[in-house]
Write a structure and sequence with these properties.
This protein has 175 residues and is an all-alpha fold. It has one domain. Helices cover 72% and strands 0% of the residues. It is built from ten helices and no strands. α5 packs parallel to α7 and α7 packs antiparallel against α8. It starts with a helix and ends with a helix.
């Protein structure tokens, strides 16, 4: 958990804190990768715009860096503000669509797909109107990995609690 501490100790400078753990986002150990996401979450409270800005380059990085973005940002307590949730939904859309044409996935892409398999439901539930529209847009994509992400998110009870009729309709339409 020293990667959590690395972020917390640098919390006065969000950009530096995020930069200091980027190299660990691609570590072979899932525990270290998860510590990176938790560390980012620990410094994000009330500073989500700075955190999102600092993570934008990661969203253009490799699959494990993208996975860190999803894992760090898709946390209910961080998605209170509608504009923050909208930013996160846009990032999720961009990251998700990169898997649309993939056939076989690398190990990093599998980890990313798993993170997207729960992250969307968190972001949609945080901002239902914008979230449902964004989710419906990806649900219309034919790629097998996108459809896996859609089906996994539709299994989450948070979406049923949010809008049971919508979740049921989406499940019926899922490929």
């Amino acid at each position: 958990m020293r990667h959590v501490a690395r972020c917390v100790l640098r919390r006065d400078d969000v950009a530096e804190a995020v930069a200091s753990v980027r190299g660990f986002a691609v570590h072979s150990s899932w525990r270290i990768r998860e510590a990176v996401a938790i560390g980012i979450q620990e410094i994000a409270g009330g500073r989500m715009d700075e955190v999102i800005d600092s993570l934008r380059p990661w969203a253009k990085g490799n699959a494990l860096e993208k996975r860190a973005v999803v894992a760090a940002l898709c946390e209910p307590k961080l998605l209170i503000d509608a504009s923050v949730a909208a930013d996160v939904l846009r990032l999720l859309g961009t990251i998700t669509m990169e898997l649309s044409r993939a056939d076989r996935l690398s190990d990093g892409q599998v980890a990313l797909r798993k993170a997207l398999g729960y992250g969307w439901s968190v972001a949609v539930a945080a901002s239902p109107a914008a979230g449902m529209a964004a989710f419906e847009a990806i649900a219309g994509e034919a790629g097998k990995h996108i459809q896996w992400i859609v089906r996994e998110n539709l299994k989450k009870s948070r979406l049923v609690r949010m809008d049971g009729a919508w979740a049921e309709r989406m499940r019926a339409e899922a490929r």
